[in-house]
Hints:
Number of domains: 1
Number of helices: 12
CATH topology: Rossmann fold
Number of strands: 8
Shape: globular
Order of helices and strands: HHHEHEHEEHEHHEHEHHHE
Largest sheet: 8 strands, mixed
Keywords: Lipid metabolism, Methyltransferase, S-adenosyl-L-methionine, Transferase
Structural class: alpha/beta
Family: Belongs to the CFA/CMAS family.
Distance between the termini: 38 Å
Bound molecules: S-adenosylmethionine
Strand content: 15-25%
Radius of gyration: 18 Å
Oligomer: single chain
CATH class: Alpha Beta
Organism: Nocardia aurea
Region (Disordered): 1-20
Protein name: Class I SAM-dependent methyltransferase
Mean pLDDT: 94
Amino acid sequence: MxxxxxxxxxxxxxxxxxxxxxxxxxxxxxxxxxLDPLRKYSAGRYLSEHDTLEQAQRNKLxxxxxxxxxxxxxxxxxxxxxxxxxxxxxxxxxxCETLGVSPAPRQHGYIAEQAAARGVADLxxxxxxxxxxxxxxxRGFDAVTMLGSIVHMPDLDEVFRRARAVLRRDGxxxxxxxxxxxxxxxxxxxxxxxxxxxxxDIFGWGDLRPLSDLVTAAENAGFSMIxxxxxxxxxxxxxxxxxxxxxxxxxxxxxxxxxxxxxxxxYLEIANAGWGYTTKHYALVCRNGR
Length: 290
Ligand SMILES: C[S@@+](CC[C@H](N)C(=O)[O-])C[C@H]1O[C@@H](n2cnc3c(N)ncnc32)[C@H](O)[C@@H]1O
């Protein structure tokens, strides 16, 4: 496995990339203590008041498959694949041929073990690196997904342009992301202490943008828009469930480093305080066609 190297001054300007391994390359067990069993680190979808976190995450993966119009057997690229929840699910449920991309090496070892245990090793591949730097086959995929990862990519135009280049004609791109409510709120809240803590201390780099920035970059790349869904309330509930798990498993999380649980909890509480006021969570679906 090769890992892209990143320098601190590479996060601005065209072609910029950012390093977030200080968070995502932590021991996968930490994430197992507060995420659902598939370790999906993004918003779930709660269809009833009784849905558990695990059910909500499975609902969400079904929702993504529906929005992409997947029927089975498609070639799917997941950019920012985390611990593999989406690729493992699409391989097991729909026999999709999947490729997951992430710069965090430990995620890949975990995914390989899970794919073998679930009998889908032949349908699940991953590559270590930044999407912006990887060579991928032109028009090589029927669908592309990005759940909670575009926030870590400085150059939106480059990302949407590359995503379109790897999609077959009429293939779909699904992006779900947390966004500032609008440009004025971004300007006001971008350098607040809470924003800095989440961006720099937790992730290393992350840039919440208004939805309009994502749509503009998608349009510039040549995509047609299909749909926008508001998943803000779903993310609020997801994070409530994560906070409860961090509290319940704080001692195990802190065995990986004193204060880890408290930092995680602070991050999650800051995120949950903003929904509907300063921040929203949207799912955007685009088509590579006229
Ligand atoms: C919030 S996690 C979401 C993981 C997964 N999509 C999920 O829903 O569980 C963000 C992921 O994006 C990855 N990532 C960060 N920068 C990236 C980049 N430039 N290219 C590809 N993946 C990236 C991180 O390593 C991490 O796996």
